[in-house]
Amino acid sequence: MIVGIGVDVVDVARFEETLARTPGLRARLFTEGERGLRAESLAARFAAKEAVAKALGAPPGLLHVEAEVVTAEHGRPELRVTGRAAEVAAALGVTRWHVSLTHDGGVAVAYVVAEG
Question: Which of 3, 11, 91, 114 has a beta carbon 3.0–4.6 Å from 55's, enabling a disulfide?
Answer without folding.
Answer: 114
